[in-house]
Every structure is written in structure tokens, then in C-alpha cells.
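This is your field. Have a critical look at the following sequence-structure pair:

***
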Amino acid sequence: MATTAAAAEAKAPKIVWNENQRRFETEDKEAYIEYVLRSDGKVMDLAHTYVPRSKRGLGMASHLCVAALSHAKSHSMSIIPTCSYVSDTFLPRNPSWNSVVYSEDLKSSIQATSEDIKSNI
């Protein structure tokens, strides 16, 4: 089994963070997931995923999502799954990533905190 896992990892494409274009992409730049930063950079809105026909069916979109979500998690960011692939396919298949998804509860607690600060001034 270790050989199978190593083989699968060897086949995984290298995903690169292209900060200037705000996307995570394959080294050849053909497949990517684009994002928009919101809430002063605390929230990453995953807006669009693209995989060319020649690379479809290989799990490429999933690898792109993992790269973006791993980045968000390691930088204490939340994500908004605007892209239909992320919201309708990736997250339902990978519920362990739901903890990174932005929620209204987080928004409410942030607003409550700022309201508490204002009331104490």
C-alpha cells in the first residue's frame, strides 16, 4: 500500500501560488483557481476554477482546491466558495474542509466585538 500512496503522490501536479494574478495554478499555468481577497485579506473568495479539456478527469480541480484551502488555513483565512465546483462538488466530497468556509456566525461575532468596543468608548 505504501507504494500506491507514493505513486499517487508522485502523479500529483505541482500547484503554484501566483500572488500577482491572485490564483493557484499548475506549473504550465493551464489549470487554475482564481480568488478575490475580502475583509482586509482575511477572507479568500474562490471565484472560478478552470481546467482545460486535455486535463479534465484527472482530479486537477480538486488539487487546485486543496492548494487554495491549505493556503487559507495556514494563513488563518476563511474562504467563500463562490465557484460552483468548490461549493457543489469539492466541499460536499471533502467535508473536512468545511471548517475553513466563511460563515455568518464568524461575521456576527466580528460585528458583535466591534459593537462592544463602540459601546465601551
In short: Residues 104-119 form the longest helix (16 residues). The helical segments are 2-11, 60-74, 84-93, 104-119.
